[in-house]
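Exercise 7. Given the components listed, write out the predicted structure of the assembled complex. Treat all entries as one system.
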Amino acid sequence: MAESYRRSRWSNALFVAPYLVVFFALLVFPLFWGMWLSLNKVDLFGGGQFIGLRNYARVLSDPVFHQAVRNTVVFVAVSVPTLVGLGLFLALALNKTTRGSSFLRGLYFSSSILSVTIVTLIWRIVFIPNDGLMALIFNVLGLEPIGFLSTKGWSLFSVGVATVWWCIGLPMMLLLAALQQIPADLYEAAALDNAGKWRVLTRITLPSIKPTIMLVAVIQIVMQFQLFGQALIMTNGGPAGSSRPIVMYIYETAFIRWDVGMGAAASELLFVIILCAAMFQYWISSRKEVA
Amino acid sequence: MKRLLTGTALATLAFAGMGHADTTIELQRFFGACDTEFGNVTDVSQAVGECGIITALINKFEADNPGIDVNVTTVEWPGYDQLNAQLASRAAPDVVTMHYSAISDYQSRGLLDPVDDILAAQGIEPSAFTDAARSGVTKEGKMYGLPFDNWTMLFHVNLNLMKEAGLVNDDGTPILPTSVDELFAQGEQFKEATGKPYLVQVLANETAAYTRALYTFLQQQNSDFFADPKAVDLTTPEATAVVELLKKIYDEGLTTTGMDYAAAVSGFSNGDGGIAINGTWLIGDYVAQSEKEGTALSGGYTVYPIPQLFPGKDSTYADGHGWVLPKKDRSPEQVEAIGKLFKSLADNDFQWARTGHLPAVQAVFEMEEFQSLPHRANIAEIADTGQSLPPEVLRQFAIQDIIGEELAAAVHGDKSVEDALETAEKRINDLLDNI
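Answer.
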């Protein structure tokens, strides 16, 4: 044991050095650099003057930021349960070994490989007034078309629909993989006990895949808090900022206004929000487990 | 053997000399991508539209200058995000398109090189450009770009629908409003006769149209809303009057609603309304459509400046496009190549003016070909009535976004007019105060 300890040399660290260099250069350094920028009055092109927490005070007193936080929280609160629920439904429905289910798995996953530009173009065609698919359907039904992308409330809803359509593939696949890990003898035993479908679902299936449901929820919370491209391209955050998410606020502040310090401060706040939301979700699930 | 080796080495050196690489200019622009249609066109007269004409102009320059290679990168309008990232990483292209209204931001941070010496080396005098164009690129006494055009928003008129509404004079010219009251009267008349909205506006997913309308109608009321370039004054009766006008147009159903930029452009082409409030850059395309059979604009298109609706002065907000040089080290060959490119663009400014933009080169106004372009006589007055914001006002694109967002909220009834203007003023002044 002592011999093997002595054989452990610092030079062995060279094996992990390539990863560590990338990790520090692309993750750790930008993380701390962002924190430092948030304490400075600085634009995109260098310079800077230390101003302490003034950027945080400006962000926290900005009504536009408050609105962006509200929009994002509402978006996450609606889209994450939808993604988890719909993903679970699709996974349960497609947990078979038929050709049809394999085809449908591929079909439902296919939207995930598209870029945000393509996704938003597709949904723009659906939602745009006059020539859009929804407008045509409303006209055929003799109803007044809704301005999905330009009406308060509907704009965030439209962004949510596009997002769920785009992101549903990953939750479905993760839950499907988890379903396939459940030992078949549990179901055989349930069948011998003459358990109903609902009882099998609630007593065997869901408890068995609970860690994966938890994983999917945390991944989606982290992802959906970072909503950006869909809102930027489909609604430009409008109308009246009602679909502007936090990341779009950061983008506008740092890249359109060139106020990188304030943008960095908003980024750090978003980091804290995501961390809290994910920890809260983790705490809720762990607490139930203990109970 | 020795001779053979020496000979081979000399021959290699000679070939290497002959194969000297072209001078390359990295050019970054907006105006769209259309290589499929115009990628090989060098006869600029065959090209139409902003994208077609600029593509053909660069093709022609490369054909005329075999030793110069222009690498074009096309960016999504307005492309400043990419440029900012490139400047921040010290990887900026050699030549970039830039709005006159954005030049101050970059020049004031020392991110642009002046072009006076480059233009002088090519024999281009500053006086060759119009006052509006030259002042757009001139900062602290130096020119920071090649002026390319001036543009503004216009009334694009569908004469076929206006005839149906009885809004055409005997001489075939449209009857346009000369006051706010006339605008509503004619708008109602149009709507009743055609069942369509009078105006085709970009009211969704867009901020520029609202802002340009506000600037135009404030200028028409002689409102000096940027008397202090570091603080805007929007809580004025004049600003309230403008936003109430825009809101009443919306409330009374005199405009298309919910159209974004692309939808509004095609909506006017499809005859969705009588008058499109949109830019100079669409004239060429709409003229081409009016010359085709079977379109909503067939034989029935014309264009005018935004009419004077307020009794102050005839004025319309104007901006322009220029070609700027991001600050970087360049070889003398590159500088010379850029000079030649600028000379070519200035010499062919008439071709660019076919898009509908007003020429930056004064002499083009005198050209018979320019004067005979359709409808140019109608809009020539913009050379005198066009007015930009004071050049000292920084972050004009960010300001445009704030105003557009707040005005859209007021027009759609999400905020009161006073609240929208107060909020816009506060947000803009916070922005300017923290530069």
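Discussion: Chain A touches chain B at residues 41, 43-46, 58, 63-64, 128-131, 147, 149-152, 234-242, 252, 255-259, 262 (CB under 8 Å). Residues 4 and 183 of chain A are 41 Å apart (CA to CA).
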